[in-house]
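F.,

This is the one I mentioned.
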């Protein structure tokens, strides 16, 4: 085994400035500067080794990571960054196959991303199973990958079987000509302790096989630049119980510059009670957990914890967040959600923006013009558009560029933003899975009932909890129920831990009974307005509504209708959704519009198209706030 020397404070420099001929795997802990290593390695190749920018390919797990890498690289090497290929796996597959994100997105039905076969199509090309006019199969791979000599892969622990094959095909691992394969070198960065996406097909086996697959040298990055010493110690104590680790014996701690600081950071003095220790809040039931979390949020903010957006509340499942959200809203604390969103290209504000780009075709568009297209009125969808424009500026520069390129960029980014976007401003509520890649000054992790998955895969469950713990920079609190799914305090025991039994009254039952349900397109009769002529008043009623407006759910005949303030219908629930909501009508508190969605006649087939009288229309997606008539069973 060709391992690098034991980790030191100079390990990042050693990786960045290593000879470029060998393949390398960097096993990195949370907050250890994984992105920094990739960016500086790329800058080293460009500026010191004088490598052609067009010979470097960086593969990222998602679009936001790709944009962040480009942003940091541009800050180091200026214009040279433009020549480096920085792509997601799907984005690179699109480039290889010559497919358009915009065209494909327009062809598929809503709810189907239409990109599942992309990587397989790229593999067919790279592995010689597909024809390309005028090019022999043996020479196709060289034509497609002409010039690439250095591959850098971020978050290698998260790749699935297709992505693994794509990296192998690009790197030439399957080539019989060893000289061709040797011309490419591979550097991958990952953390086996943060492999939490098995449900998406990611496998920890791929990072474990990397050394043998590529005869790679192994490096470790274990200094944490993010979290306090107490948080690092508690997280390390937990993950240390996992036996199938690649970093066994490598204890993650704070970076050298902070080792002389108080282990609780600035909270050692700010908070006389906790002094920056990881606090286990022992509560009797989820209702009391909600009240305890609200009290902690208020206390930390009063002590100097920053704005509400500096706080995150995480849980294994969305259901565990429900009573805490209700308690926060009752206390006047604003909340934001990180969750799957509707198809963003069909949200009214975004669809209008994309239409304007489409109208320009291949003509040029300036950044000032793009900013001028932002909706004048505030809405949850204005911020994603503004961010998209700034991301495009990072990608293309300040000069005017082709509207078609910008539109393609937008469709690619929107596809991933659907799974990577907060809705609202305030304390962020998210599952532990959804919080990966984020960080906050203050994190609270809610306890929940144990699941069958936790019992089947204890190591996987600890990895997920470890990811949640290491999102925290300054303070970390862990809810602990009598029979909960979180780790027992003894699994985290040490000077860094503070156990606090909490005796507090739960919120009133009216709050604990509150439920939040966001309807999906499957819950709506999508053709309801489309079956009316374009001049029908329903279209004007829909146009008059915006995100945040209130609607009413009204039973009329055999239907459940979404109606405006005058009880005029704007949409109808699907038959299945109507059966679910008809018995709950008396318990509904509010129906709030989340987004106005665009629908087209061409989205359907056969009878659907025939029945539609309008070529295009809108329908509302809503969130229903209601009270369960079953009371709170949280203590069961």
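My design for it:
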């Amino acid at each position: 085994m060709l391992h690098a020397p034991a980790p030191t404070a100079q390990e990042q420099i050693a990786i960045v400035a290593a000879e470029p001929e060998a393949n390398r795997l960097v096993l990195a802990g949370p907050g250890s500067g994984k992105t920094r290593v990739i960016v500086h390695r790329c800058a080293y190749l460009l500026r010191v080794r004088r490598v052609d920018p067009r010979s470097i390919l960086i593969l990222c797990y998602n679009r936001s990571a790709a944009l962040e890498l480009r942003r940091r690289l541009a800050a180091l090497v200026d214009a040279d960054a433009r020549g480096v290929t920085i792509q997601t796996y799907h984005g690179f597959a699109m480039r290889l196959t010559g497919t358009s994100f915009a065209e494909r997105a327009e062809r598929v039905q809503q709810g189907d991303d239409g990109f599942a076969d992309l990587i397989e199509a790229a593999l067919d090309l790279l592995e010689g199973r597909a024809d390309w006019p005028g090019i022999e199969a043996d020479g196709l791979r060289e034509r497609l990958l002409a010039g690439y000599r250095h591959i850098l892969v971020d978050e290698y622990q998260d790749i699935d079987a297709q992505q693994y094959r794509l990296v192998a095909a690009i790197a030439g691992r399957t080539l019989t000509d060893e000289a061709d394969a040797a011309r490419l070198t591979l550097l991958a960065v990952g953390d086996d302790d943060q492999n939490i996406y098995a449900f998406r097909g990611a496998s920890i086996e791929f990072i474990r096989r990397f050394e043998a697959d590529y005869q790679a040298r192994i490096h470790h990055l274990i200094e944490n630049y993010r979290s306090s010493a107490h948080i690092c110690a508690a997280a390390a104590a937990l993950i240390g119980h996992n036996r199938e680790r690649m970093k066994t014996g490598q204890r993650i701690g704070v970076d050298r510059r902070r080792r002389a600081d108080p282990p609780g950071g600035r909270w050692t003095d700010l908070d006389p009670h906790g002094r920056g220790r990881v606090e286990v809040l022992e509560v009797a039931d989820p209702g009391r957990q909600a009240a305890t979390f609200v009290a902690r949020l208020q206390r930390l903010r009063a002590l100097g914890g920053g704005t509400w957006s500096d706080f995150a509340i995480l849980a294994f499942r969305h259901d565990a967040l429900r009573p805490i959200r209700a308690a926060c809203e009752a206390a006047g604390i604003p909340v934001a959600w990180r969750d799957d969103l509707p198809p963003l290209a069909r949200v009214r504000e975004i669809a209008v923006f994309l239409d304007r780009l489409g109208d320009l075709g291949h003509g040029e568009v300036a950044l000032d013009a793009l900013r001028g297209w932002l909706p004048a009125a505030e809405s949850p969808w204005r911020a994603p558009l503004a961010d998209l424009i700034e991301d495009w500026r990072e990608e293309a520069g300040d000069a005017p560029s082709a509207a078609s390129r910008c539109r393609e960029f937008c469709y690619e980014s929107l596809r991933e933003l659907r799974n990577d976007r907060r809705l609202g401003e305030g304390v962020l509520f998210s599952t532990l899975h959804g919080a990966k890649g984020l960080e906050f000054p203050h994190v609270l992790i809610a306890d929940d009932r144990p699941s069958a998955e936790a019992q089947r895969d204890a190591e996987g469950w600890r990895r997920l909890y470890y990811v949640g713990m290491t999102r925290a920079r300054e303070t970390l609190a862990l809810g602990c129920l009598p029979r909960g799914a979180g780790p027992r305090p003894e699994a985290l025991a040490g000077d860094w831990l503070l156990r606090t039994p909490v005796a507090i009254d739960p919120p009133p039952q009216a709050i604990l009974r509150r439920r939040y349900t966001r309807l999906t397109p499957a819950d709506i009769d999508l053709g309801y307005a489309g079956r009316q002529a374009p001049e029908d008043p329903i279209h004007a009623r829909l146009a008059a509504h915006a995100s945040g407006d209130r609607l009413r759910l009204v039973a009329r005949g055999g239907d459940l209708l979404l109606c405006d303030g005058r009880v005029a219908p704007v949409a109808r629930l699907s038959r299945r959704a109507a059966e679910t909501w008809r018995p709950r009508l008396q318990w509904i508190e509010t129906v709030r519009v989340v987004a106005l969605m665009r629908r087209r006649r061409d989205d359907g087939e056969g009878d659907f198209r025939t029945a539609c009288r309008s070529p295009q229309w809108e329908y509302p997606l809503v969130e229903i706030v209601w009270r369960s008539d079953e009371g709170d069973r949280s203590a069961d």
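Residues 1-8, 631-636 have pLDDT under 50 and may be disordered.

Talk soon.
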